[in-house]
Each structure stands twice: as C-alpha cells, then as structure tokens.
Amino acid sequence: MPYDGDAAKRAYAKATLDCKRRVAATGADPTAYNTLESIADLDDLRTALGYDKWNVFGISYGTDYALNYMRAYPQRHPRGGHRRRLPPPLAGGVSAWTKRRRGHQGRLPRLR
Questions:
Q1: Where are the alpha helices (DSSP H) in the chain?
Q2: What does the alpha-carbon distance between residue 36 and residue 64 come to, in Å, rounded to a whole number?
Q3: Phi, psi dihedrals of residue 85, rounded to the nearest 5°
Q4: Radius of gyration (Cα) for the chain, nearest Å?
Q5: CB atoms within 10 A of CB 23
Q6: Residue 100 burial class via C-beta count within 10 angstroms: exposed 0-12, middle 13-18, buried 19 and up
Q7: Which of 23, 56, 61, 84 has its CA 20 to 30 A from that of 103?
C-alpha cells in the first residue's frame, strides 16, 4: 500500500482513533499527552537523576521538544550549548522532505 494513498490515509486515521479509544479506556487523559506535559516530565527526570543542569539534544520532533524544554526551563541548561538546531517548522522526518539530500543539507553544516 503506498504511504500517501487513500487506503493508507484511512488506515492511519483508523489506527489513530483506535489508539485514542484504548488510551481513554484505561482512564488516562489523552489531552495530557502533549509537549508541555512531556517536558515537565523531562525536568522531573532531571531532578530524580540529581542533575542541577543538563544539555538537551534532539533530532526531528526532538528538536522542537528540546527548544520547548529550553524555553520552559532556561535555568536548567548551560547557555550556548545548543547550536545548529532546527526551528520547529523545519524539524521533520524524511517524509517531510521533498528530497532526502535537501533534508540532509538542512541539518548538516557544509564541510569544505
């Protein structure tokens, strides 16, 4: 089945709805599965591990996640330790790139 065909879109939508129903059936709040809740959990993990500060690094969605963490907890990471990260609109997987080479060029500095 082609990943961008109608059948794949319907299968993805069905699987997403089924997943949502399974999560809701456990009594969990599906609205709590979001970036802001998750970065609060990440900071709780930092505390539990006994770190005052730590560096965060992300690829793809992790880029957006790391940026949100740094915005929410600026005192928790060393300044200047996060260079060459992608802004959230550019953070995406291979499926978001029009060409694989273009995606790699956007992520990696040019080496000469």
A1: 6-25, 35-49, 61-72, 100-107
A2: 11
A3: -95, 155
A4: 18
A5: 14
A6: exposed
A7: 56
Q: How far is CA 54 from CA 43, 50, 90, 111, in A?
A: 10, 10, 24, 28
> Residue 30 and residue 33: Cα distance in Å, rounded?
6
Residues 6+ apart with CB under 8 A from 39: 65, 68, 69, 72, 73
> How far is 59 from 109, CA to CA, in rounded Å?
15
The amino acid occupying position 99 is K
Question: Is residue 86 within 8 Å of 108, Cβ to Cβ?
Answer: no
Which has more confidence, 86 or 5?
Answer: 5
Distance (Å, rounded) from C-alpha 70 to C-alpha 15?
Answer: 33
Residue with tokens 């770190």: 51
Condensed to tens digits (0 to 9), the pLDDT of residues 39-90 reads: 999 999 999 999 999 888 777 778 788 888 888 998 887 654 444 555 545 5
